[in-house]
Amino acid sequence: MKRTKVINNSRIIREIWIRRETSRVEIARLLDLDKSTISLAVNNLIEKGMIVETAEGHSGPQGGRRPVFIKLNKTYGSVLGIEFRPGSYTAILVDMEGEILATRIGKFSMQGFSFTGSLLDVLNGLVKELTSFGPQLLGIGVGLSGVVNAQVGIIKYSEPFGITSDYNFHKEISSHFDIPVFVENDANACIWGELAFHRRKELRDFMFLLLEFRDFDPQKDTVCNRIGIGMGFVINGNVHYGSEYSAGEFRSILRNKESVGQLSLSEEDHAKLDVDPQVMERFLRELFAHVGLIVNTLNLSHIILGGAFEQLGDYAKDILEEEIKKNWPYPYSYEIKQNIWYSSFGERAVAFGSAGMVLNALFGDQEVLEGTSHTLNLRNSLMVF
Fold first, then answer.
1. Is the pTM of this model over 0.90?
2. Torsion on CA atoms 173, 176, 177, 181, rounded to nearest 10
3. ∠ CA 263-232-96, rounded to 5°
4. Cα 125 to chain center, whole Å?
5. CA angle 229-144-224, nearest 5°?
6. Which of 128, 140, 200, 271 has the most neighbouring CB atoms within 10 Å?
């Protein structure tokens, strides 16, 4: 297939995906392409089963032929999103529109195995099991805590998984599969989920704040560090990675030599977090004071809370609004709480987001969608719509 045709097909199917349902005429207008070019490409995509015709619309004021609406064939394929945490994983299989086909939660143990061996064991087991659910598996997205260069598939650093130097995920993991397998930082994965599955919302400048409460086993863990905090940013319509891909890695300026984890909390504080309301409030105020500074300094429009924040309800929102207002010297012209959202995906936000990242990449490059390009450099496909 000529490269021009590939590019046009990619633009067309991406437009259909973004708009959910549209027509040939509308696509031609939006992409400034000839109607015959659109018709030829759309008919080709229908023959391949990627899109389907739905219903006829109304004629225009001058009469004429009624437009035929088209949309993605959501059963054409599926994608798998997985969050790996120390000790466990959450996996979600979704169709082309993001509807859940299957969910799996299991143990992820590295005892006696390398990181590579453990990861491959889980991935191979999931692929073998979930491919029986129907739609062909088109790609896999992996989200985990750490500094990740998603554009080339390198985990630069991850304390929870003991990675202290560049780990070539593409070579060690992706190369074992005949479909694309991508990796992303957990908070950034959540951003892709919000963008991919709510793609008509005007989210141009926002942050995603991920909170995870980790299990603590006194027989295995020497230090009680029960909190994992991640931040992800979209600035002017682009996911912001930073010069060393560590944007969003967070540590409180209030930490001292007695502190454990990312905040100033002591080990004793961590142990009492879910039973002592005063410790919980101190934790939230310290975290949200930092968030308020970032939100106001960067003039972000929204804050999306994901992971364990949902357990805290409006209590967390109230404190966050207070800390944002406390940090700002001018009046706010709106109620801040209306721009503080909970993620639609709750504690499955990372797994959902990893699936969303894959869909975004697939609909950015026709060769990947058709399975002919498995060594994709994500630099051109990880984009905001």
1. no
2. 10
3. 135
4. 23
5. 50
6. 140
For the chain, where are the alpha helices, taking DSSP H only? 3-19, 24-31, 35-48, 115-130, 169-172, 186-197, 267-272, 277-298, 314-327, 349-362, 366-369
| pLDDT tens-digit map of 79-106 | 999 999 988 999 999 998 888 999 999 9
C-alpha span between 68 and 40 (Å, rounded): 14
Q: What is the 3-state secondary structure (H, E, C) of 236-278?
A: CCEECCCCCCCCCCCCCCCCCCCCCCCCCCCHHHHHHCCCCHH
Pairing of strands 238-239, 51-56: unpaired
**Residue 218: pLDDT over 70:** no
Q: CA-to-CA distance for 136 and 178, rounded, in angstroms?
A: 12
User: Across all residues in the chain, what is the average pLDDT?
Assistant: 85
The confidence score (pLDDT) of residue 381 equals 43
CB 73 within 8 A of CB 135: no
Other beta carbons within 10 angstroms of residue 180's beta carbon come to 26
Chain position carrying tokens 């023959």: 47
What would the two tokens of residue 338 be? 């209306």
Q: How confident is the model at residue 233 (pLDDT cuts 50, 70, 90)?
A: very high
* End-to-end CA, the chain: 25
Of the pLDDT bands very low, low, confident and very high (cuts 50, 70, 90), residue 75 is: confident
